[in-house]
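We examine the record.

___
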Amino acid sequence: MIDDYNAFINNNTWIVAPRPLDVNILRPMWLFRHKYNAYGSLSRFKARLMSNGSTQLLSIDVDEAFSFVVKSATLRMVLSLALSRHWLVHQLDVKNVFLHGYLSDTVYMDQPLGFRDPHHPNHVFLLQRSLYGLKQAPQAWF
């Protein structure tokens, strides 16, 4: 949990702001998972802070919600072409990928329990960057 929270702080994911009136304030959620190594044994526990984007309303809280998806047939064709022409193929994994996208919409979220700002416990987070669970998160990082 601390590592995940520190990633938010290091990326300036939010600023603490007074709670506005008549605005949808999203709830934070913690997602807990088990991570396994290549041998199938438990390697660590993972916690991810998310927002409850299911309460976001299209055209009110978010302008558009979509993500770029590659069809598997297209991916297979590109890989076949690369193989036949002896091209090098690279892949990458971006850690905390959604935290790299900037938001164009104004989004507020409650402070998560256990991680409240002691100087402003009744304030909320004004999100500066995308967060897992937001409807606009998949397109924001691209």
Summary: The chain is about 20% helix and 25% strand. Residues 2-140 form one domain.
